[in-house]
Amino acid sequence: xxxxxxxxxxxxxxxxxxxxxxxxxxxxxxxxxxxxxxxxxxxxxxxxxxxxxxxxxxxxxxxxxxxxxxxxxxxxxxxxxxxxxxxxxxxxxxxxxxxxxxxxxxxxxxxxxxxxxxxxxxxxxxxxxxxxxxxxxxxxxxxxxxxxxxxxxxxxxxxxxxxxxxxxxxxxxxxxxxxxxxxxxxxxxxxxxxxxxxxxxxxxxxxxxxxxxxxxxxxxxxxxxxxxxxxxxxxxxxxxxxxxxxxxxxxxxxxxxxxxxxxxxxxxxxxxxxxxxxxxxxxxxxxxxxxxxxxxxxxxxxxxxxxxxxxxxxxxxxxxxxxxxxxxxxxxxxxxxxxxxxxxxxxxxxxxxxxxxxxxxxxxxxxxxxxxxxxxxxxxxxxxxxxxxxxxxxxxxxxxxxx
Length: 403
Description:
The chain is an alpha/beta fold. The chain has 9 helices and 27 strands.
């Protein structure tokens, strides 16, 4: 009879994959069975998806095979879709089967949140995974390829509308500012015919940065052809437009991408967890309230900053820090030791504005902009790949292209 505890990790994003790696260091094969469940047989760097969507990097650069970094002889790898967690019976329902668990790590990542904007879910693209990002890339290029060869083409077909001016939206338009001139040259199109329009209901962009850095970012992007419609609410998304503002102005476009919000995996709700804005507000030890053996991490969790009275930002660095504490706390549960509270170590934030430009706040608030910020962004991206995939994966997938 197998008396070893069974630890099941759901999701191979930043939090899930890092947790799995840490668990293999903390437990011998004789101490515990570790199972990792993921929809795909690869991990993708979700903070690189805007580059895939714009077409500035190849989709394969942003992902690597899970079996290249997790030994299948050490961890049971299951590639399947999670439908529901039956917490009462400690059971995970998959599309093609089911699993039982003694300890569960829920890290299934994010889904798009359209905040109920009419037509947005049906008519706009979203940057959520490799395939959705690849679809955007291909759609944009198709619009350029068709423009001079289709007598029914309209100039608005070359307009790219981006809803939302948070991290993903701004980094995406920054990559588009790099990619559009290349597409214009490739398909013999006047650059002045192409519009990149960013629409945001709030009065500014990137609210996590100070005013001077925000102004720098806006000017940098505007100088490269990005138009901003700030303080402009999106009332509706049609097949080829946003309807915006109090006067219901229509902005036509050939490509519409929504980046304005995300929420935790819908499996949380299907499984009966208590949710706040689509996520679980976890205890200080990262366990779901009411459950001794269920941890919720990454984009599925609100982890409270008690001093600030609000959740920590749901970033990749936070997700990987969740993983470290979670793995140690699982070990403590198995062996009867004390649990640790999560303490966030903020190493700063950097946003890219294209290949050679960016803004950031690092090392206790030191501001960065321009090439220095772009270089730091590459360091951050490479560090993530190294922590998850090791040196071999970093050498294959890392960003080493000089400016």
